[in-house]
Task: inverse folding
């Protein structure tokens, strides 16, 4: 009867192999899915055998269903919160039942602003410390409901322009409403402590002294501080002692913001024989900003980008890896859990030793090779058929023996 049991073990092993192949094929389009491979082993009786003879085996068994953590293809998407890991590592997720790990990077914010996957598991990050680094000793959920970006009042600026050297001093006293009282003017935007944007205008008047200019600044037609003097050398460069730093102080905004005191650096400005021209005016103020988008760099640092051009770091993705990933327990929903076999989780950050890089706006496809799986399916089918034929043959032999006895 051993032929029957041997063939039956082969049928069982071939059936399990077919199950594994079918599961791989079914998940060929599952993001972050990792295929499995059936590993067989032969079976021999544990009793003593004649050392001079070869013993007949007891059949075959499935020794293991080994997970294959090879890299899947990475495809780009249009969503910033779609994430792919290029290399080793797992995303860290949490829900009511504990910590899970996944390669599926399909995330989106829920109604509370928490970044979660389709099953509601929250994506974990290392929180920022406030000094540009992250607290890697703890994790927290990535949340996008950040406050507005606070405004910053203009305090300094840099002005680069050219004042015509052949200008003549106006005959009338300076009056911002009368173009005949100044030679040139240019405008920029400044911001008060509440983030209100206000146009500011610089007026340049050639004095009776060669190479010397008077600079007035007005905001909404109101003079800001006293007029300043800007002096150039006979080569057209700004001269000390002021070195081009002009201070305009004492403007009180009408919206209740703090007094505006600014210093603009004209050190790179020139007085050449050409026409008046402004190269650039840069100042350090900015208005209030609302969340515009979220960016995630290859190291997993998540930044909120605001409409005022500023950005704030929200955290760094908490990555995980294991000494033996094949020992992880499969939970479904492309989730894995730590086991004794997998070893203790190793936490880290993307791009560091043992961890791959993060690609935002991309997803890792299943690593199932359909062509290979279809061949494996045919092989499993042939193995099943051959073992079934062994049972048929053994049955015929048994029937022959029964017929002899009659």
Result:
């Amino acid at each position: 009867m051993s032929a029957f049991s041997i063939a039956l073990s082969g049928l069982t092993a071939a059936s399990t192999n077919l199950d594994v192949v079918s599961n791989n094929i079914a998940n060929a389009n599952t993001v972050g899915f990792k295929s499995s491979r059936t590993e067989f082993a032969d079976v021999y009786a544990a009793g003593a055998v004649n050392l001079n003879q070869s013993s007949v085996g007891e059949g075959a068994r499935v020794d293991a269903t080994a997970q294959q953590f090879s890299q899947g293809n990475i495809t780009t998407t249009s969503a910033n919160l779609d994430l792919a890991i290029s290399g080793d590592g797992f995303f860290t997720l949490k829900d009511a039942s504990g910590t899970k790990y996944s390669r599926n990077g399909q995330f989106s914010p829920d109604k509370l602003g928490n970044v979660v996957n389709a099953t509601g598991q929250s994506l974990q990050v290392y929180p920022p410390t406030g000094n540009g680094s992250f607290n890697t000793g703890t994790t927290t959920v990535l949340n996008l409901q950040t406050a507005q970006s606070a405004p910053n009042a203009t305090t300094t600026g840099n002005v680069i322009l050219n004042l015509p050297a052949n200008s003549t001093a106006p005959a009338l006293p300076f009056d911002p409403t009368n173009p005949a009282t100044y030679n040139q003017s240019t405008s920029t935007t400044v911001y008060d402590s509440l983030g209100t944007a206000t146009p500011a205008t610089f007026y340049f008047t050639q004095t009776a002294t060669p190479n010397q200019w008077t600079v007035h600044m007005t905001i909404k037609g109101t003079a800001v501080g006293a007029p300043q003097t800007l002096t150039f050398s006979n080569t057209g460069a700004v001269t000390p002692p002021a070195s081009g730093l002009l201070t305009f102080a004492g403007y009180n905004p009408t919206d209740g913001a703090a007094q505006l005191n600014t210093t603009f650096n004209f050190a790179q400005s020139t007085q050449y024989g050409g026409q008046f021209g402004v190269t650039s005016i840069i100042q350090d103020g900015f208005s209030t900003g609302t969340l515009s988008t979220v960016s995630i760099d290859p190291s997993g640092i998540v930044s909120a980008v605001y409409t005022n051009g500023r950005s704030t770091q929200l955290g760094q993705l908490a990555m995980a890896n294991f000494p033996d990933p094949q020992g992880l327990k499969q939970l479904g929903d492309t989730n894995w859990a730590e086991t004794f076999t997998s070893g203790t989780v190793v936490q880290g950050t993307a791009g560091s030793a043992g961890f791959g890089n993060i690609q935002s706006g991309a997803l890792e496809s299943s690593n199932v090779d359909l062509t290979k799986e279809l061949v494996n399916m045919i092989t499993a089918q042939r193995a099943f058929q051959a073992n079934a034929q062994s049972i048929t043959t053994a049955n015929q032999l048994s029937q022959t023996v029964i017929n002899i006895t009659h």
Observations:
- The chain has a mean pLDDT of 91.
- The radius of gyration is 38 Å.
- The longest helix spans residues 370-405.
